[in-house]
Design a protein that fits this description.
Blueprint: E1 6-11, E2 14-19, H1 30-45, E3 51-55, H2 80-110, E4 115-119, E5 122-124, H3 126-132, E6 136-140, E7 144-146, H4 160-164, H5 170-179, E8 183-184, H6 185-190, E9 196-198, H7 201-216, H8 220-235, H9 238-252, H10 255-266
């Protein structure tokens, strides 16, 4: 299937999703918000890969939101009564648009597969929303992020604040949010926002693909469980998480997968693990 904003390849259990509008700095146009969740859910629900790598093209990862997207919530009419009703609905339509956009990034956080972001150049505005929804982030030496919304009189609303405040210190987040300044790759590494810095785009992609390949050799059920528990721990107390992981393993732990992992390690070969089941789309008859 072809997409306007992305190219997708799947090889060796790694799904590679590439933003492919470099001449437009990979800005997030209308199609972006439709295509990204469709792609992620297709890969995840149909168990087409074991890990996702998200990368981009051109000098910048993404210029962020194309502001014309918000125009989709603005309706007008030449009839005075109809126009008055439309104006009264405007806030609800805007809210609906934002919720739709938020889901495009939440699908990365909620999917069963690890998602690795490879960031070159700048991640502006909505790009920060995007990368903070991923599991791990890697940057080129010239990489940076900017919570750019403040520079155009907006408050970031598609996912940056609820996620980035769990990744880096609150004071740093507030400085970035209030000033719109660029956080360099070196600073991002210091604060723990990214895992590693690479000298250039090619080296970064090679390095991230090696990490993805290593993840793809592990038991998918165990990786899924790890992501689920880590995300749960992020949002809950230690006591709640301890209860949750006990219940999770009581129902999900597979002795056959453990035995295969131990045997494969002893025999110095890749494990023969089961893939994640295809997600149910309807109840069977």
């Amino acid at each position: 299937m072809s997409y306007k904003c992305f190219e997708v390849t799947i090889k060796n259990n790694i799904a590679h999703i590439v933003l492919n509008r470099p001449k437009k700095r990979n800005s997030m146009i209308h199609e972006f918000w439709d295509e990204l969740p469709l792609i992620v859910k297709e890969i995840d629900s149909n168990s087409k890969a074991r890990v996702i790598v998200l990368s981009s093209t051109g000098p910048h990862f993404t210029a962020g939101l194309d502001l014309s997207v918000f125009g989709s919530s603005i309706k007008t009419s030449t009839d005075a009564d109809a126009q008055e009703k439309l104006q009264r609905q405007e806030g609800a339509r805007f809210f609906d648009t934002v919720k739709y956009m938020q889901e495009a990034f939440s699908c990365l956080d909620n999917c069963r597969l690890p998602v690795l972001a490879a960031i070159q150049g700048g991640a502006f505005g909505g790009g920060v929303d995007l990368i903070t929804a991923c599991d791990m982030r890697y940057m080129t030496a010239d990489g940076f992020i900017t919570i750019y919304e403040i520079n155009i009189g907006m408050t970031a609303d598609v996912g940056t604040f609820p996620r980035i405040t769990k990744l880096i210190p609150e004071g740093v987040v507030k400085e970035l949010a209030y000033t719109g300044r660029r956080l360099t790759a070196a600073e991002a590494l210091t604060h723990g926002l990214i895992n590693e810095i690479y000298p250039d785009h090619k080296t970064m992609l090679n390095g991230v693909m090696k990490i993805a390949a290593e993840i793809a050799t592990k038991a998918p059920l165990a990786v899924y469980g790890s992501k689920r528990i880590i995300n749960y721990a992020r949002d809950h107390s230690t006591d709640d998480t301890l209860d949750y992981i006990g219940i999770w393993n009581a129902s999900m732990l597979q002795n056959a997968e453990i035995k295969e992992a131990i045997t494969a390690s002893a025999e110095k070969r890749e494990g023969d693990f089961v893939d994640l089941p295809v997600s149910r789309t309807k109840l069977a008859n």
